[in-house]
Amino acid sequence: MAATTTTLLLLIAAVALLISPAVSLTCTSQTFSRSAAKFANCVDLPTLKAYLHWTYDPAAKPDPTLSVAFVAPPASPDGWVAWALNPTATGMVGSQALIAFKDANGSAVVKTYNLSSYGPVVESPISYGVLRKSAEYSSGVMRIFATLALPAGGADVNQVWQVGATVTDGVPAKHAFAPDNLGSESTLQLLSKSPTAGKAPAPTHAPAPTPAPAPAIGSPTGGSSLVKGGGLGLLHGVLVLLGVSIFGF
Where is this region: Disordered (predicted)? Predict the structure, then answer.
């Protein structure tokens, strides 16, 4: 009996060692190496094994500040993770992104990207003031730390997150098109308090476009519906099924 108990305890210990301490089952059990990294709120994001910790200070001067720690495993050890706010829409296009990856020396870095179009990803300033930013990588997990200056009066903002497998010459390559990748967006409630910490928000999506009425036979406008109404969304959906991105990211 004693031998059985000892074997069971050893098995439990071995399993515990296999679980990375950097990625816990919930955000509330995560800690950070830096003692100053304390946050008022956290949430288990619904996709990509990602977590967000944040503190929003609406009384900060001259502008309100949002301090965050975004935690997620890249799609590969040499991949990247991204967290962004989108001030104009849901989704990645238009978002003001922080993307972290390992540089040529193997050190974790985080850079800013204004993803304002479907073109290639190019490092650039973003519309929010970046007061601080840094990144850490260990145990297969990347962490982005940042403090942003936000416009006054905000309550809810659109957030987007993503992971990728490859960085080529310092440029993050396209991500996968699995359901988790395509559903990695939600609303961040800036004034949320700790009682809601750990509850995943439901992903938000743009409403489906209303189909355009079928043109009359012989109508000179027949065949133009692909570029009107929901045509771009339909085209994007077809390209996704074919594994092709119109984002370049």
Answer: 194-221
